[in-house]
Amino acid sequence: MTQSEQIPRRVLLFVTCTVDQLYPQIGESVVNVLERQGCEVDFPAGQTCCGQPAFNAGFTEDAKAVARRFLDVFAGEDPIVVPSGSCGAMVRNFYLELFHDEPETLAKVRQVAGRLYEFSEFLVDVLHRDDLAAKMSGSATYHQCCHLLRELGIDAQPKSLLASVEGLEMREMEQSEVCCGFGGTFAVKFPEISTAMLNDKLDYAIATGADTLVAGDATCLMHLEGGVRKRGDTLQLKHLAQVLDEATSTDGVAS
Amino acid sequence: MKVRTDEFKARSAETTKNPRRQASLKLVYDGLHKGRIAAAEDTDDWEDQRDRARAIKWHTINNLDYYLDLLDKNVRANGGNVYFANDDAEARDYVLGVAKANNVKTVIKSKSMVSEEIGLNEAFEEAGINPVETDLGEYIIQLAKEAPYHLIAPAIHKTREEISDLIQEVAGGPRQEDPQDLTDTARALLRDEFRKAEMGVSGVNFAVAETGSIAIVTNEGNGRMVTSAPRVHVAIVGMEKLIPSMQDLSTMLRVLIRSATGQRISSYVTVVNGPRKAGEEDGPDEFHLVIVNNGRENLLKDAQLREAMLCLRCGACLNACPVYRKAGGHAYGWVYPGPIGAIVTPVMTGKKVGRDLPFASTLCGACKDACPVKIELPTLLLRLRSDLAEGKADPKEKSSPLLERVSIKAWRFGVQSPMRFALAGRLSSLMMAPLSRGGWVRWLPPPLSGWTKSREFPRIAGKPFRARFRKKQR
Ligand code: SF4
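Output (structure tokens, whole complex):
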């Protein structure tokens, strides 16, 4: 399908609380990439968080309150794009669990979840763009974030997007599908286990000799980058959106 | 067996710093985990088989009373005895009673996690009876006086050097290092016991209700000896191990063995139909089946947690679990480690213990993908977290620390309004300013120091995405 066949379409961006507050540059890259593909991006200003932190910690009632709000903020018909497998899985999979005994809310969940796409999934499966005519030099290795891979089953999409970037050499790391050890409060409650997992992940990534570790979730990137900085490694960390932004930017640098 | 789940944090942290244990745990991934994946990829209708196995188990568990009765009836019809043990003490007493009635001095055992669960070896020893584990891995941990480290590979954590030491201690003679020599020595030691033993105790992989048979899967052939050589055979089975028919057995064996070891079929599958009958040459004079509850009812009576009763104890979720592969098997503090252990241990032993276990997971989902009967392990962990955090497990005591509960309430208040959320972000950003350099915070006070000991934390952005987006729109 050629680009001209695609009509620009309005998408709602669910940027996630982590990107909003900690990695705004990832959000900007998402907007740049989507706009370059002809989308008109809207940011529902009422959005905050999907409720996952409370849900994962066992505070179901608090999670429900926040999830209900999310469903209201994202009511409508336009597709929703989220640059995170984890927050995507929360809405698409775990909301069903959360509201399993509330049929009315479940109907809303299905309506919203049915329109919600993870960033790479939206590009490849909805816009049918798995080659963005992107160019970039260097080498990268891809970490398969857990919820993106196993909860949403999204793996071919980010990989094909990365493979299509001209000049970017992809190198596979050992155990690329294994968790980086983040797990939300897990990282604080069980720091030794979490750190041991993190160190394995970074060691495997570095062993590939790639200069950049790419992942699809800001929370994992925060964990990995925090580790890289503490260890004093030189590995670069990037969200897939940042890579694609940089590689499709006409002035050669990410804006 | 003593429950030591409250030591999870300390014991797991220790294991992360033990290079020997970490090397063994890496082998769990490279060997068992990859072996399972290869076996699954090699099986055309793997997903169908998983679904079929799951359906068989759900059907049995949902009709457990019926199948327990049927099993009981058919074991008796085969000439065996059946005892239903409500807890570990009842199970021990019954087995000891059988041993005493038969004047037993030596018991040979094949691998049984339920036997570990009810502390049978200790009970035998106290009664002056010598229990001998005949599965090589179990034998090693019996010599080491340890609990199993893994559901199917109990001594996976032991290095060759450690095994050499243990074998030399009992065998005497020159120290052996070669795995084949060590196995031969262990085998010679065990042969003697096989001859002496008056009683055999085995576990059960599947108890077939329709025929009153038990099936045992082994790779060493010891299961066959234990169930046929001594005069008395006692089989111990957890209530979750029932299946309806022999036809179901073929499906179950297919998924169990591939998931456990990556083999298409184990070296031995032993099916026992009770004691020796008139005209038969081999087999014991007496056969006893001990069906153990010991807290399984707590799982059964809960519509959601009941799913954990589908478990085949194949160990695939352990092999897939990156937390197990760092924390090690002993950290889980009872008999069943890994993701399934983190679920069944607190529920079977009473929720007041083991409250760390359901939280000791990143919810990465690798266990769920590996499980042959597709148990929703992450969902069950989340359910237990919710019970604990909201005081449903124990109304008098909410288990989450006060600070965490307050933080969640504050978070809820904050994220219910974008203005408050943005304001909280601004304030946090300012508060973090003195602690940060180059946009990253190097130190945070406890309990957040758990993070900053090994990781920096990004400073909250001075200008969040929402502000940048607004500016861009203008
Ligand atoms: S939960 Fe599933 S994977 Fe884990 S031991 Fe049981 S059957 Fe095997």
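Chain A touches chain B through 66 residues (CB under 8 Å).
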